[in-house]
Amino acid sequence: MPRHAICMDCHREVLWTLTDAGKRLAVDPEPDDTGNSAVYRDGTGTYRSRRPSEELPRMAWEKLHVPHVATCSARRRGPAPARPGTPPPGVSDLAAYRRRGRS
Q1: What DSSP element (H or E) covers 40?
Q2: How many Cβ atoms from other residues are within 10 Å of residue 56's Cβ?
Q3: Domain count, the chain
């Protein structure tokens, strides 16, 4: 089994693939039937990925994987922090100026 790269955020193994658009996409290394990326290895040994569609469904040689960004524990964030009602001293609130508009 090939050695996989390590995610810099959560320190789990990832498999880097090359999409049809030429972009790099990290996927979880284990195949998962709930995934939405069809991954295969081309003749040069490069892992390729694409999104299957109704026009071009998953082929027999492709396995479904989940993009790592969907499962990365370090990227999961809670709700955005609440903004304070009044800005701290010395900070101007530009919201009123923006609402008023520039004439």
Answers
A1: strand 37-41
A2: 10
A3: 1
